[in-house]
Amino acid sequence: MAVTSQPLRGKRACKKIFWAVFPHACFILSLVIYAFLGALMFSHIEGNRKVNLSEEYRHFLQNLWNISRNLSDNMTENEEVFKERIHGLLHSAKRDWFVNPKDIWTFFGSLFFCCTVFTTVGYGNTYPVTRAGKYLCMLYALFGIPLMFLVLTDMGDILATVLSKSYNEFRKLQSKILASKFCSGSSCFRGDGSKVDVNEPLSIVEMLRSQSAVKKKPARYRNAQIFEMLIARENEYKKLSRSKSIERWSSCPELDRGKTMTRVIENFDKIGKELEKLDVPIVLMVLVIFVYISCAAAILPNWETRLDFQEAFYFCFITLTTIGFGDTQLEHPKFFLFFSLYIIIGMEIVFIAFKLGQERLIVLYKKVISFCGEKKVPSKKIYPK
Fold first, then answer.
1. What angle do CA 347, 348, 351 make, to 5 degrees?
2. What b/e string do you get for 175-209 counting C-beta neighbours within 10 Å, with b at 16 or more?
3. Looking at the chain, which runs of residues are DSSP E strands?
4. What is the pLDDT of residues 47-99, one digit of tens each?
5. In this structure, are residues 182 and 192 in contact, taking their beta carbons and an 8 Å threshold?
C-alpha cells in the first residue's frame, strides 16, 4: 500500500500546484492574447490606410515653395526669413505627411502601441489616425484597462506575500540577533543587567518516561507536556486525514475533483486580499522602487544610445507611474517590449507604494483632526454639589 500511495501523492501534489497557479497564469495569458490580437488589428487598419494629400498639406507645400523662390543671395537676410517664416511653417507641419504608415504600424510597433493603451501610459508619439482606428482604440481600452488592472491586482497579491514574508523573516532574524546578544547558554540578562535562569521544557518522551513524577513537577512542565501531547495528536490526525483523502481520491476521483474546483473558485475570490493586508515601511518601498528603476536605467542605454543613465531613469519613472509625457522617444521600441514583464511588475511596485502612502496620509489626517478636535473642545469641569 505504501508503494502504490507514493505515486498518488505525487500526482495529487502536482495537481494541487497546477490548480493553485492556474488563476495567475490565466490572467497573464489572457493579457498576452489580448495584446497580440490588438497588434494584428491595428497593424491591419492603420498600416494599410491610404495616405491622401489633404488641402492643408497642399497649402504647406505652396507656402514653402513661395518662400524658397523669394530667398536672396544675402545669407543674413536668409537667416531672418528662416527665423520669421520657415521656422513657423515647419512647426505647423504634421509628421503623418512624411511617414509611411507601414513603417510605423508594423506588428511590433502595433504591439507597443497596445501596451501603452491598456497600461494607460500613452506616450503620444504613436496614435490612430483613421476614424475606424480611433473607435476601435476606445473599445480596446474599455476592455483592456480593466484586464490590466486585474493582472496588476493578482500579481500584487504575489508581490505583497513575498514582501511581507521577507520583511517578517528579517524582523525575526533581527530579534534573534538582539536576543543572542543578551542571552548566553541557559542564562539571559534583563535590560537592567540582572541574570535570569531559563530551563528548557521537557520533551514528551521524557515526560512519558517519568509519569510518576509528573505531578511533582512545577506547573509549567505539566503545561509543556499537555502542549506537546496536543501537537502529537494533531500530527496523527493530519496523517489519518491525508490517508483517507488519498483513498477517497483513488476510489472516487469525482469527489476530489469537485473539491479541487471549489478551491480554484475560492482562489479567484481571494484576489486582492493579500494586498490589503500588506504592512511594510514606506521607506522600504521607496528603496525597492529606486533599486528597481536603477537596474533598468543601467540596461536601457545599451540599445538606446541617445539615453544616458539619468535620462533612462527619468524615462522608466515616467513609464512606471503611467504619466507618459512622450518627450523621450525610443529608437528601438520592439526591444523595450521584452521589458513588458518588467513594466507590469514595476507598475505593481509603484501601485503598492502609492497605496501605502495613501494609508499613511489617512492616518496622518486622522491624527491631525483628532489633535485639533482635542484642542478646540473644552473639557467639562465637574463641580462638587
1. 85
2. eeeeeeeeeeeeeeeeeeeeeeeeeeebebeebee
3. 183-184, 187-189, 195-197
4. 888 876 666 777 777 777 777 766 666 666 667 666 667 777 777 777 667 77
5. no
Query: How far, in whole angstroms, is CA 32 from its chain's centroid?
Result: 16
Collect all residues with Cβ–Cβ distance below 8 Å to 122 and sequence separation of at least 6.
116, 324, 326
**In the structure grid, which three cell numbers stand for residue 365, read together?**
489626517
3-state secondary structure of 105: coil
**What is the C-alpha separation between 149 and 166, in angstroms, rounded?**
25
What mean pLDDT comes out for the span 271-281?
74
Strands (E) in 103-190, as ranges, are 183-184, 187-189
pLDDT of amino acid 128: 92
Task: Please name the residue that has the C-alpha cell 523621450.
Answer: 328
Determine the straight-line distance between the first and last CA of the chain, rounded to whole angstroms: 86
Residue-by-residue DSSP string for 195-236: EEE-PPPPPHHHHHHTGGGTTTS-HHHHHHHHHHHHHHHHHH
State the pTM of this model: 0.67
Spatial contact of 151 and 28, defined as CB atoms under 8 Å apart: yes
Judge whether 261 and 322 are in contact, CB under 8 Å: no
Q: Which three cell numbers stand for residue 166?
A: 521577507
Distance between CA atoms of residues 248 and 203, nearest Å? 35
